[in-house]
Amino acid sequence: MESLTQQILDCLRQCAPFALATIISHKGSTPRTSGSKMMVLADGSIHGTIGGGLVEARVMDTCLEMMSTPQSKILEFTLNKDLKDGLDMVCGGDLTVWIETFGTNPVPDLIQVFTTMAAQEKAGKKAVLISKIQGFSGSSFTTDKCLVLPDGTVKGCRILPKALFDAISDNQFSGTVPVIHNHGLEEFIIEPGTPCETIYIFGAGHVGFQLAKMAYLTDFYTIVIDDREEFANRERFENAHQILVAKEFDRAFDSLSIDKNAYIVILTRGHLHDQTVLEQALKTNAAYIGMIGSKRKREQIYANLTEKGVSKETLDLVYSPIGLEIDSETPAEIAVSIIAQIIQVRARNK
């Protein structure tokens, strides 16, 4: 699935007009949360969603009305009875939606910003997107943009005051949602790069093959690791972001950067390999560690690791047997149960 950033870049390069709607704040029960985006094309087709229903329909109409010229507008929605009925919701809430339209002659700086942003996403790295608000005319305004990379490199327009650049470099805007920031008399919309949520699939067999497809469909950055090149290859895993062939599983973590946004799935072809991977995984701060297999297999591996000094409290953090209990049998069904459990854990951690 092509990322929304890449789709934006494609339209910019093709000089095709489009609009981008971003939820910049929400309160109460809303269909989507802050940071959710929807891209609207000139023919009315969309990529992404801000929740569906009447709110999304009204935003789409506004996007199409505004698309004749590059501009921005911020809309407020209160989910009253009419809007809630359109969303089939019980409770109400408030949404603030930023609509930005892009015309047929994008400036080179804009293409540079989104080119770099797409490359960062593809590499699993973050960046901070800044839009400077200016040129107010009635309720509309325009923006200039730049992108700040983790190493301090800035791409795009020169719009950042030094104090704001320093604040960004010091990770003072390290959240996951857009922020409207006033700096003196200037106003900026700051969009921190969302964490790269990565699924590490150890094992390129039948379940790993199906899980990689599920991870792709649900927008996870996906890395497949196996010690068999005939299984771990681009022909077999065409949608995985990275495919690594490990000579030995006990060195498989040497080149990996596991953080709190990582989800480790252990599906190797044997108990010994599973134990080797699990022992290394438990030394990381991954958000999720799951291991396939029966309770009997799990208890044997746990006993082996306990003898090596791994505590019961640490082992209790492992999801094993892996996946939600949905009576899954086939590799595809097991993959569904695993990805559902990972999505559940991710939601609980937010």
Give the arrangement of secondary structure elements:
Layout: H1 4-13, E1 18-28, E2 37-41, E3 46-48, H2 53-66, E4 72-78, H3 81-87, E5 93-102, H4 108-122, E6 128-137, E7 140-148, E8 154-156, H5 162-169, E9 179-183, E10 186-191, E11 198-202, H6 206-217, E12 221-226, E13 242-245, E14 262-266, H7 271-281, E15 288-291, H8 295-307, H9 312-315, H10 331-349
Parallel strand pairs: 11-12, 11-14, 12-13, 14-15
Antiparallel strand pairs: 1-2, 1-5, 2-3, 4-5, 4-7, 6-7, 6-10, 7-8, 9-10
Helix pairs in contact: 1-4, 6-10, 7-8
Summarize the structure.
The chain has 350 residues and is of the alpha+beta class.
Structural description of this entry:
This protein has helices at residues 4-13, 53-66, 81-87, 108-122, 162-169, 206-217, 271-281, 295-307, 312-315, 331-349, and strands spanning 18-28, 37-41, 46-48, 72-78, 93-102, 128-137, 140-148, 154-156, 179-183, 186-191, 198-202, 221-226, 242-245, 262-266, 288-291. It is an alpha+beta fold. The chain folds into 3 domains: 4-102, no CATH class; 110-191, no CATH class; 198-349, NAD(P)-binding Rossmann-like Domain (Rossmann fold). The strands form 2 sheets. Strands 1, 2, 3, 4, 5, 6, 7, 8, 9 and 10 form a 10-stranded antiparallel β-sheet that branches. The radius of gyration is 23 Å and the shape is elongated.
